[in-house]
Amino acid sequence: MFRKVKKRHSSSSSQSSEISTKSKSVDSSLGGLSRSSTVASLDTDSNKSSGNSASETCAEFRVKYVGSIENLEFEMSKTLQEPLDLINYIDAAQQDGKLPFIPGDEEMVLCVSKYGVKVASVDQCDVLHRHPLYLIVRMLCYDDGLGAGKNLLALKTTDTKQEECSIWVYQCSSSEQAQSICKVLSTSFDCILSSDLKTE
């Protein structure tokens, strides 16, 4: 589930399945950026459901695609366990030119359901990315630090053999939108876990 992250090494109750809505200061190790950030951490090892209704959850959001870093080796994946590690890695990739700071102008539709995350063109004729729910390791949102009030949404995914990981970055129009996406994904996980527990 999503757990509240107060600081890098904070402990979290296994009973928690909520997303932080409080702001925190995150100091990037690159360029000394200071950003007001909401970090949502996804723990796929949790087997606790919040008891939400297992309804068909499907929501659409307009976002912009920043870029991705794909097929990272498993050893690299192990160094990106904490949310702030992932944020700093994305910062480094932007500084090195592997990821842009600003996305393209084209808006895309990000759909979140119990099956995972789908990113498609606005008319939904072209599907750009599919992230099955069971391959999503972590999702987090944070201020992009550029002063325009935009938030970045980062997904860390793995492959079916869990030998590699990839990082996908999208720009949201506001922190509220980014948090809404995270909450819908959290509900999707709750629904799946509830179904699994009922069938056992």
TrEMBL record:
<dbReference type="InterPro" id="IPR006020">
    <property type="entry name" value="PTB/PI_dom"/>
</dbReference>
<dbReference type="GO" id="GO:0001525">
    <property type="term" value="P:angiogenesis"/>
</dbReference>
<keyword id="KW-0966">Cell projection</keyword>
<dbReference type="GO" id="GO:0033622">
    <property type="term" value="P:integrin activation"/>
</dbReference>
<feature type="domain" description="PID">
    <location>
        <begin position="60"/>
        <end position="136"/>
    </location>
</feature>
<keyword id="KW-0914">Notch signaling pathway</keyword>
<feature type="compositionally biased region" description="Polar residues">
    <location>
        <begin position="34"/>
        <end position="54"/>
    </location>
</feature>
<keyword id="KW-0401">Integrin</keyword>
<dbReference type="GO" id="GO:0005634">
    <property type="term" value="C:nucleus"/>
</dbReference>
<keyword id="KW-0221">Differentiation</keyword>
<dbReference type="Pfam" id="PF10480">
    <property type="entry name" value="ICAP-1_inte_bdg"/>
</dbReference>
<feature type="compositionally biased region" description="Basic residues">
    <location>
        <begin position="1"/>
        <end position="10"/>
    </location>
</feature>
<keyword id="KW-0597">Phosphoprotein</keyword>
<dbReference type="GO" id="GO:0007219">
    <property type="term" value="P:Notch signaling pathway"/>
</dbReference>
<feature type="compositionally biased region" description="Low complexity">
    <location>
        <begin position="11"/>
        <end position="29"/>
    </location>
</feature>
<keyword id="KW-0206">Cytoskeleton</keyword>
<dbReference type="GO" id="GO:0051895">
    <property type="term" value="P:negative regulation of focal adhesion assembly"/>
</dbReference>
<dbReference type="GO" id="GO:0051781">
    <property type="term" value="P:positive regulation of cell division"/>
</dbReference>
<dbReference type="GO" id="GO:0031214">
    <property type="term" value="P:biomineral tissue development"/>
</dbReference>
<dbReference type="GO" id="GO:0030336">
    <property type="term" value="P:negative regulation of cell migration"/>
</dbReference>
<dbReference type="GO" id="GO:0007155">
    <property type="term" value="P:cell adhesion"/>
</dbReference>
<dbReference type="GO" id="GO:0005178">
    <property type="term" value="F:integrin binding"/>
</dbReference>
<dbReference type="GO" id="GO:0001726">
    <property type="term" value="C:ruffle"/>
</dbReference>
<dbReference type="GO" id="GO:1900025">
    <property type="term" value="P:negative regulation of substrate adhesion-dependent cell spreading"/>
</dbReference>
<dbReference type="GO" id="GO:0030027">
    <property type="term" value="C:lamellipodium"/>
</dbReference>
<dbReference type="GO" id="GO:0072657">
    <property type="term" value="P:protein localization to membrane"/>
</dbReference>
<keyword id="KW-0539">Nucleus</keyword>
<keyword id="KW-0963">Cytoplasm</keyword>
<keyword id="KW-0472">Membrane</keyword>
<dbReference type="InterPro" id="IPR019517">
    <property type="entry name" value="Integrin-bd_ICAP-1"/>
</dbReference>
<dbReference type="GO" id="GO:0005886">
    <property type="term" value="C:plasma membrane"/>
</dbReference>
<feature type="region of interest" description="Disordered">
    <location>
        <begin position="1"/>
        <end position="54"/>
    </location>
</feature>
<keyword id="KW-0805">Transcription regulation</keyword>
<keyword id="KW-1003">Cell membrane</keyword>
<keyword id="KW-0804">Transcription</keyword>
<keyword id="KW-0130">Cell adhesion</keyword>
<keyword id="KW-0091">Biomineralization</keyword>
<dbReference type="GO" id="GO:0090313">
    <property type="term" value="P:regulation of protein targeting to membrane"/>
</dbReference>
<keyword id="KW-0037">Angiogenesis</keyword>
<dbReference type="GO" id="GO:0030154">
    <property type="term" value="P:cell differentiation"/>
</dbReference>
<dbReference type="GO" id="GO:0007229">
    <property type="term" value="P:integrin-mediated signaling pathway"/>
</dbReference>
<dbReference type="GO" id="GO:0009966">
    <property type="term" value="P:regulation of signal transduction"/>
</dbReference>
